[in-house]
Design goal:
The complex is a heterodimer of chains A (231) and B (82). Chain A has 231 residues and is mostly helical. Chain A has six helices and two strands, in the order ββαααααα. Chain A has a two-stranded antiparallel sheet. The chains are: A mainly alpha (231), B mainly alpha (82).
Chain lengths: 231, 82
């Protein structure tokens, strides 16, 4: 019997704080991404090297996506959106390294991301519209909708968390079950499918984060049409 | 008594996934068919359509994922089976 996907086993403890495997993998991914970005952006030149070209193409793709989805200037949102996408993508694909389980296959990592998006929605909404303006968006279209709008904020964050968790966890789980049933090479097609799922889920998480933040901004602009991709 | 609860839990988990997958499967089929139709009519807007399609499919798929999570809760975090 495989262990429960809802539990995490602490590897060791630092003082009173138990450290689990997802936390350790998350730290590793953070270190790799930060060191890579720092190493590449240390010497930015007008005639870019290969690594700088890769980074620049990433940034321009993010800018196009943000501009297309949120219909705003991408500069204030590029760092958050780009980091979310790259981190989730690397975290989903980190299961390709032998011995490492993707940290997004555990509920806690996804909950952290969902809460970051939830906080960013409120932060950017308040920063753009002001506190009164942001709170006034809850009364659109009428004040009767206030409870529904509040519930929507919570449920969509919850569905964001459970969507990423469920997709990644099901991949790990199916892999473990197939490996316990059949031999060495049988789980490989499932792992290939898992790579595709990981990329799509990273993209979808990022697009939904953009849509949620963009909806918080767009509801304040009464004259503009509401974002067509809004849920 | 405990054994009976575990048997019912496994059955309930299978039921949750099997019936919970029917609705999203039909919905995703309709969504993909509509997107194919739209792309066949307007191949130049294939990028926008497929981007919106992926987001929509993720929304629909979440329903099946909810059923899966409920099944795992029933199997592994069942409060009555301890």
């Amino acid at each position: 019997m495989t262990h429960s996907p809802l539990q995490t086993v602490p590897l060791f403890t630092i003082g009173p704080v138990p450290v689990t495997e997802p936390v350790l993998v998350t730290w590793g991914i953070m270190a790799v991404l930060v060191l890579f970005s720092a190493a590449v952006t240390r010497r930015l030149t007008l005639a870019p090297s290969t690594a700088q070209t890769v980074l620049e193409s990433f940034v321009s793709v993010f800018d196009d996506q943000i501009r297309g989805t949120m219909q705003v200037d991408p500069a204030p949102y590029r760092a958050l959106i780009g980091t979310i996408f790259i981190f989730i993508l690397v975290a989903n694909w980190s299961s390709l390294v032998p011995g490492i389980e993707a940290p997004t296959a555990h509920l806690e990592t996804d909950a952290a991301f969902g809460l970051i998006v939830f906080g960013a929605t409120i932060f950017y909404g308040v920063r753009t519209l002001g506190l009164a303006g942001y709170l006034a968006t809850f009364t659109r279209p009428t004040w009767v909708m206030i409870p529904l709008n509040i519930v929507e904020q919570i449920t969509r964050t919850f569905s964001l968390i459970v969507r990423l968790f469920g997709n990644m966890m099901s991949g790990v789980f199916i892999g473990a079950i197939v490996l316990s049933l059949a031999g060495l090479f049988v789980p490989i097609p499932f792992m290939a499918l898992d790579v595709l799922t990981g990329a799509i889920q990273a993209y979808i998480f990022t697009v939904l984060a953009m849509v949620y933040i963009g909806a918080a901004l767009a509801e304040g602009r009464q004259d503009s049409p509401v974002n067509p991709e809004r849920k | 008594m405990n054994n009976a609860i575990q048997m019912i839990s496994i059955f309930a988990a299978a039921m949750a996934v099997s019936f919970g997958a029917i609705g999203p499967a039909l919905g995703e089929g309709r969504a993909v068919a509509a997107a194919m139709d739209a792309i066949a009519r307007q191949p130049e807007s294939a990028g926008t359509i497929s981007r919106t399609l992926f987001v929509g499919l993720a929304m629909i798929e979440t329903m099946a994922i909810y059923a899966l999570v409920i099944a795992l809760l029933v199997l592994f975090a069942n409060p009555f089976a301890k």
